[in-house]
Amino acid sequence: MPKINAGRLLSELRRFAQFGAYRTGVHRPSYSKEDMDSRRWLAQQYEAVGLQAHIDGVGNVLGMPRSQRQSLLIGSHLESQNYAGWLDGALGVIYGLEIARTFAETTDCAGLLIAPVAWADEEGHYLSMLGSRSFVGDIDEAEIDLAVNVDHGLPLRDALRAAGLAGVPRSLLEPGRHVGYLEAHIEQGDALEASSKRIGVVTSIVGIWQYSIVFHGIQNHAGTTRMAIRKDAGVAAAMLAMAIAKRFPEVAGPRSVWTTGRITMEPGAPSIIPGKAEMLFQFRDSEMPRLESLDAVLMELIQGVATKTGCRADIERTEAGEPSQMDPAFQVAIENAAARHAPGASVRMPSGAGHDAQVVARKLRAAMLFVPSIGGISHHWTENSDDADLVLGCQVLADAAETILRREGGEM
Questions:
Q1: Quick one: average pLDDT of 73-86?
Q2: pLDDT at position 411, please?
Q3: Residue 237 lies in a domain
């Protein structure tokens, strides 16, 4: 049975948080100096374990066993959101490193192959889940050519060139090379903490459907245009937001969520009736029929608002990710390992956030483990988890990895 080194795990997590340290969190956007420094450091650690380390053309860091026998991928992403937390992504990456080290040091596990991995740009500074999508062959060169940074508009190609990755090939999943993929992550919510549970066994990962909704009205003088003849795009956007808030609860599932993340108006002056308003909206659920129902209701509401206000509506669905189900046998392996180390402290739960595991699951059996987030806080520099939970999560994942690899190369 593998026994992780708790002190080493915690030390490496804190060491890793120095790359882009910001207050009690990190600022490590994709392909920044801090991000690339962290990737090069990680590659060195992989080599020290005896793995063949490689940073591919989009920045994925892969530690591949020097054997053609099947291995188990374990990892997550390295970069952070802007001025965010020290564990989001990094936790799963350092778990992969620690488990690879532990297996290499454990006589009974030395023949079980762990392939730790750190994906690039899961957070979407350029393209959401870029690294994992590239690895499974779900992205082409044309999409990379068109991608730009969402904050400052730098083309992805320029960022890759500045990071020293121009001309470096992208690594692709080799059929039959891996038995599956495991990912650990902080929960990024308070369900575990609120229920006094310490391990979340992820059953599914939500599909995220996102929209740009633009209302076109008539820009005019705010003081001289009679209310009866106005076509106010700003009012249309506000009406839609309120209509969603009223109607969606009637058709939503128990874990459906939705957010109006931004409303912008043009020209945005107090004395001018907005002639254009854009609303960025998304909803999430783990069941495809529910996503389709919410989409149908949204279209109905948009049409109703357009009719009432006299504004034309343009709708673009900018994202329509399908929900992903985690492998049932891998879930059992995590659940059984949790029962050994913390009886009664695990719970099955869906993930309300997107993760690389949902991409990898298109080609490999995959599963996820959550540890509690203190106060449910994430994507903020105050994000944190209790040290005991961090250690428990890694030990549970190590045990699950051993079970998966011992059962005839993952044939469970």
A1: 98
A2: 44
A3: yes
